[in-house]
Design brief:
Layout: E1 7-11, E2 23-29, E3 32-39, H1 47-51, H2 56-63, H3 71-86, H4 92-120, H5 124-145, E4 154-155, E5 158-159, H6 168-191, H7 193-199, H8 207-212, H9 218-221, H10 229-232, H11 259-283, H12 295-304, E6 307-315, E7 318-326, E8 335-339, H13 341-345, H14 349-353, H15 361-366, H16 372-375, E9 380-381, E10 388-389, H17 393-408
Antiparallel strand pairs: 1-2, 2-3, 4-5, 6-7, 7-8, 9-10
Length: 413
């Protein structure tokens, strides 16, 4: 207890309300939250470092394992960044297939989030319902790619698998399935009186705070911020398609930035994704799925390339990007940097938690759809001085080897 009659309550890094290791320190006055400080750093896996010791092709499967829910997004960003750096252009057909896959993942991600959000406020019936209907899009992803998670779909200059017309009926059947269920989703998430009480006016992020803190995705569109990379800086085939910012005010609600608005935006984006996929199927160009089918030829081009590239994508959680640097004559990546959506949205926690109740912590924490594995960074602080310390990769490698040997206890393998 502090002298000002407030308490510090840590939530995490292991807690039933959190799905990944993450720590938030709350300052509590009675039941009211008067301060919140996020402390990531428990889930840093060093994926970027590993990627810089592989050739660009071997990083493709590594990139989509950054996140199991956004595996398409990270693979898309990485491949786009390398294409940008090396001057490789994908075919138009590949661009449309990339959009279809990205929007299927958006459906998958938003339905999954709705289930998690319901669970955080005690509605496990809603959780089981949404995760049941989520199986349909996962089955479709498996039908197209052969996998339910980690789809190995992207390659430099195109995609690895086509979506031929014989697959269209299965895709259309899945889209109709979600259209028919959409009314039920609105009824239980937007019309249920208990859920409305737990979400309206809770976890408010004003438009001013959303812009000031550089939030992204549904988190800020719910506050009325017109920000969507698919529209602002179109990539793949998005520039050929009709789509608009999904804001609560388009549907007769206020752009209040509360959890109800964030739920509304995600549900409306589900409908938008269905429309985008149909546009892609209607406009799909009839050509090759890869501009250079011979991997050896592309790899040789990548070895000679010298330049920087960025892949900037609208992930289900919001804008994210990958940066790569290729150095001529060097087989491995010279630099690879990832910035996921959660890295931006984490800063929006502070105003959303302020003044709320302890019981609202789980749903507010979930409302940005956080992915700690995507965004986590390591920060090393000297406990004696409190100052941050920097380690170069040689020192980190030495410490990692030492730790492994200590864990083995002298046992040679």
């Amino acid at each position: 207890m502090n002298s000002d009659n407030t308490y510090e309550v840590p939530i995490g890094p292991i807690h039933p309300a959190l799905k990944e290791p993450f720590l938030i320190k709350f300052k509590i006055d009675g039941e009211r939250i008067v301060g919140a400080e996020a402390h990531p750093g428990m889930n840093h896996r060093g994926i970027e470092f590993m990627g810089m010791h592989r050739n660009p092709y071997k990083v493709i499967p590594l990139s989509e394992r950054i996140c199991g829910i956004c595996s398409i997004v990270h693979q898309h960003m990485y491949v786009t960044a390398v294409e940008h750096a090396a001057g490789i252009e994908p075919t138009n057909r590949a661009r449309y297939i990339r959009v279809i896959m990205a929007e299927l993942e958006r459906i998958h991600s938003h339905v999954l989030w709705a289930g998690v959000a319901a669970h955080e406020i005690g509605f496990d019936t809603h959780l089981h319902f949404t995760w049941m209907i989520r199986e349909k899009v996962m089955d479709l992803l498996e039908y197209i790619t052969g996998n339910r998670v980690n789809y190995a779909m992207w390659t430099f200059g195109g995609v690895n698998r086509d979506i031929p017309k014989r697959m269209y009926p299965k895709i259309e059947a899945t889209l109709k399935y979600y259209e028919e269920l959409y009314g039920k989703l609105e009824e239980i998430f937007l019309g249920d009186p208990s859920i409305r009480l737990r979400t309206i006016g809770v976890g408010v992020l004003t438009k001013e705070d959303a812009l000031r803190l550089c939030g992204v995705g549904p988190t800020v569109r719910a506050s009325g911020v017109r920000k969507d990379v698919r529209i602002d800086q179109p990539y793949a085939a998005y520039g050929d398609l009709d789509l608009e910012y999904q804001l609560p005010s388009l549907y007769g609600y206020g752009d209040t930035g509360d959890i109800f608005s964030k739920t509304l935006v995600r549900l409306k984006e589900l409908v938008q994704s269905i429309d985008i996929i149909r546009q892609c199927l209607d406009q799909m160009p009839d050509e090759s799925i890869n501009s250079e089918p011979k991997m050896a030829a592309t790899l040789n081009k990548l070895k000679k390339a010298d330049g920087e590239g960025i892949g900037r994508i609208e992930a289900p959680r919001g804008e994210a990007f990958h940066y790569v640097r290729l150095k001529g004559g060097k087989e491995e990546l010279d630099c690879w940097k990832v910035r996921a959506s959660t890295y931006n949205n984490l800063a929006t926690y502070a105003p959303m938690f302020m003044g709320e109740q302890i019981a609202d912590i789980p749903i507010i924490a979930a409302c940005i759809d956080p992915c700690i594995g995507c965004m986590d960074r390591a920060e090393i602080v000297d406990v004696n001085t409190g100052k941050r310390r920097e380690y170069h990769h040689e020192e980190l490698h030495r410490l990692s080897v030492k730790k492994t040997r200590d864990l083995l206890g002298g046992v040679e393998r």
